[in-house]
């Protein structure tokens, strides 16, 4: 990763830039507070963001890197930055349409039907049989 890119905790003032970045990929971040996010910053601009949501279990909920900076290790660095926040858990999960990215970060694809066990909105979804989201899991040591 470029040494001029810094990863830091997001602040309330960053939410507008985070929302714009997430909207590029049609990612919804409503009701996720700023302190759940980490951001990648270059020259004062946010070029990446990732949220760790801790409900019943820890989940990488939203992650996005500006298209001009993809493939440079920023997404993986954002995940690694957030992982120390996970306490007393053996796994972190993610739902994604980009399983290859998560595999590069150490996640393993799990049974798609596991969605109904761990996400209430998946269990109630009428498109479960045609859903293209993969369930990814990272085992923590």
Question: How many strands in all?
Answer: 7
CATH fold group: Aminopeptidase
**Silhouette:** globular
Alpha carbon gap, first and last residue: 24 Å
- The largest sheet has its strands arranged as 1-2-3-4
Helix count equals 5
**CATH class wording:** Alpha Beta
- The Rg value, from CA coordinates, equals 15 Å
Please summarize the sheet with the most strands. 4 strands, antiparallel
Mean pLDDT: 88
Work out the strand percent.
Answer: 25-35%
How many domains would you count in the coordinates?
Answer: 1
CATH architecture: 3-Layer(aba) Sandwich
Structural write-up:
- The protein is α+β, with helices and mostly antiparallel strands and 141 residues long.
- It has one domain: Gcn5-related N-acetyltransferase (GNAT) (Aminopeptidase, 3-Layer(aba) Sandwich).
- It is 24% helix and 30% strand.
- The protein contains five helices and seven strands; from the N terminus they run E-H-E-E-E-H-E-H-E-H-H-E.
- It has a four-stranded antiparallel β-sheet, sandwiched between helices. A three-stranded antiparallel β-sheet has the order 5-7-6.
- Strand 3 and strand 4 form a beta hairpin.
- The radius of gyration is 15 Å and the shape is globular.
- The model has no long low-confidence stretch (mean pLDDT 88).
């Amino acid at each position: 990763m470029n040494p001029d890119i810094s990863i830091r905790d997001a602040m309330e003032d960053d939410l507008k830039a985070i929302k714009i970045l997430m909207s590029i990929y049609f990612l919804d971040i409503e009701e996720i507070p700023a302190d759940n996010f980490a951001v990648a910053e270059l020259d004062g601009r946010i070029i990446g963001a990732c949220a760790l949501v801790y409900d019943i279990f820890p989940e990488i909920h939203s992650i996005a890197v500006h298209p001009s900076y993809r493939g440079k290790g920023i997404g993986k660095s954002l995940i690694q930055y957030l992982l120390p926040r996970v306490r007393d858990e053996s796994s972190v999960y993610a739902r994604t349409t980009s399983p290859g990215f998560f595999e590069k970060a150490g996640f393993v694809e799990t049974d798609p039907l596991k969605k109904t066990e761990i996400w209430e909105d998946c269990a109630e979804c009428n498109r479960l049989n045609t859903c293209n989201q993969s369930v990814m899991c990272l085992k923590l040591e």
